[in-house]
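Q: Can someone sanity-check these two? First one:
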Amino acid sequence: MTPRILVIDNDSAFLMALKKTLEYNKFEVEALPNPLQTMDLLAEQEFDCVLLDMAMPGVNGLDLVKKITENYPRLPVIMVSGESALALAREAIEYGAHDFLEKPIETKKLLNIIQNAIENN
């Protein structure tokens, strides 16, 4: 079965690039530019992993990861941020994120982290 990934990011260029990269690597991808639709989409469809941007207009990524992990504790969430800060990464993990990646994302590292997240949940 092809793993399904939900990617949430308001940066449409990054979102589409990530979608193409993941699809090329044999993942089925749902790209969501509006984080406010996340919980509705998760209630309607099953995913194996979520990639979630930290900073989006109107939504705090940390609050959203907490909400996702409280409602779907077996669904791994990988936080993505353009900011490089150990404190942010630590906070994301404390809020329930499986891992934290900085933009730009190295493809091989991303694929390894996603595979690890799916296999260990």
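And here is the second, same format, sequence then tokens:
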Amino acid sequence: MLTREDNELLTRVGPGTPMGALFRQYWLPTLLPSELPGNDCPPTRVRILGEDLVAFRDTGGRVGMLADHCSHRGASLFFGRNEEHGLRCVYHGWKYDVDGRCLDMPNEPSESNPSTGLRTSFREKIRQVAYPCEERSGVIWTYMGPRRSPPPFPALEWGWLPEDQHVAAKITERCNWLQILEGDVDTVHTEFLHSRIDAGDGPGMRPMDRNPRIEIAPTACGFAKGARRNLDAERYYWRIYQFMMPAFVLLPAGGNTITYRVTVPMDNEHTMFWNGEYNPLAPLTDEQRAKHQESRAVGGYAPATSDPLTKWRTIASRENDYMLDYEAQRTKTFSGVPPIKLQDVAMTESMGPVLDRTNEHLGTTDAAVIQMRRCMLNAVQALRDQGTIPPGVDNPEGYAVRSATAFIPRDRSWLDASGESLRVAPDRPLLTVGL
């Protein structure tokens, strides 16, 4: 279990908090391009790390991420006019570009902003808080950290692929970010929460260990996790995950694709959960894209307002018990909640807005959860106390890893057997078959 102090340290992410400062060291996925569908389109509200922002796409297609409140008198830039390479506040007309520079303040007399002379103009002194953005492989990323020049972009394989090889989706969850990430590094719940008990078209309960042996191998940006289950007299079934700071997870590869997860805190009690899938060697098929879309949410998304906390929320929610069906629980699925991702949402939100971990009792199969917390605690304490840059920030190559699923002879190490297959390389197929 965690102490109350460590639980507070890990879960609080707002401005001025140590964990918020840690997340700000990294590039974070923030928006789908569909949220800013065209140049000079309407801006959109964003909430991330407890900060209210406004995103817009300017006349040239560049994405800006500005503090919500205008530097003049604090009116919201969400109401701004997106025109001619900048966002103009409608209260008094001050206009900002994607870098936060004030381009115009038409309510000021000419002497405030002389066109010649040595005196710095009033306009040149104004700088709206602005965070740099990059658009890659169908995702808009933001860097909110202290560096004037952002760190290098992480070499996540899916972040560099053509868009036809990658698909991403979002869900807003009403709970703290750590609860969600803990679920993503936990392999054991799959055999219970996501299993079926009928003989229908589902995978059914796997005829293997439901209490796997967990092994951890540190990496440059986090750790690889091997979950070992008995398969037969000669082989083990290994599911190999990757955890990368601050909150990236690769689930075990399946077929020719890898599923990834990213957990981005909106504030202490709301989280933007990213669920993506990619094929490193070829475009995704229509069937794969359709299956990924269907897995996001039963019944689709609930109606949203401009408030970012209402966006990307599933119709299935705590108010309707996530569409729990007790008859299905008795005859079809272990949980009675459809589908897989919604089952995860039901469990993590059911813990409450911020879980009190002083009351938990961890077992041997929670080894990856323990290791992830240790990674985060070590990093946030080192940043807070010594100013040590967290793992991965200046080592983008450390993110060039893959997950795997493999049948490995019992006398071989899972790390030795998977070897180079866990590293990204051109034309290298995924490790999803027996060895």
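A (reply): Looked at the second one. Residues 137 and 163 are 5 Å apart (CA to CA). DSSP finds ten helices and 19 strands in the chain.
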